[in-house]
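User: My notes are a mess, but here's the protein and zinc ion's SMILES. Can you give me a structure?
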Amino acid sequence: MNTFSSTFYPWLKTPFDALNQQQQSGKFPHAVLVCGPAYSGKQAFLKYLAQALLCQHSAALHSCEQCHSCLTFEAGAHPDFLAIQDQDRTIGVDEIRMISEKILTTSHFGGARIVVIPDIGRMTIAASNALLKSLEEPPGNTCFLLSMSDKANVLPTILSRCLRFELRLKTSETTAWFMQEGIFIEDALQRQFFSRMPRLAQQWSQSKQLSLFQSFNESFDGWLEGNINTEQIADFLLAQDDLNLYLNWLLFLAYHRQDVSQKELIHQQVYDFLSDYGRVLGQNMQLSVNNFLIKLKQSWKGEKCASDRAHL
Ligand SMILES: [Zn+2]
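Assistant: No problem, the inputs look usable. Here's the predicted complex:
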């Protein structure tokens, strides 16, 4: 038997308990929407719920992992589980229409049909309208399990048709969880940054990317001091799969370390760089990162000069 505590994060306990209660009273909602930051475990949570709702011997919203439904689910072949992949792309109307048509047919296992759509903010307007139609007239025994990020733009009419859970990640809670999981982040600011993305911290801790991130920060400080050249920092950033995450970190760092005017300048530089970067290729990428870093350093040092002057 799957158990919540061994699988999940403490911040998901509130929505789990509420849904479990509804399940026990036979009133599980036809649409659930979990809203929270990226890397907070939303998708894994929806999948867990999906398996439990499909399980033939589930107890207290936990799946048995042994029945025919669970085995089919775990093999990725459950015909009553309809999911859109969690990928960084838009969701078009055809995908939603295909799901809407499938849920009108009888379920294969005679039980529930579960639709999982991660990050509904990715839907086009047409896709959103198509989903809304299904949510307005949900076929019996169909449950929609949806997620969205904090800042997603989603039709209010969709929001109003779902039982919605807002995940609240508290630094104190995630920090305690980091310790429990053996995820060691010494720097308080880095810990605060990752406390919004605990699942990423966990993945990075397992893949050693966390120590790479920590050594980048030492290099970054060394670079600001003039001990490391710009090309080295640019090469490192270019080698990262998730350059966006590093840029977000620099914004976070600027937000905490810089004064208002510098913060705004750095924000602008990062956004300008991001919009340019998507258009450049090959050698120009290196040039683009180098130019960005040179400007960034000037802005960053500007704050230093100002604070030096303030101390005189
Ligand atoms: Zn089962």
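The chain is about 55% helix and 10% strand.
User: Great, I'll file this with my notes.
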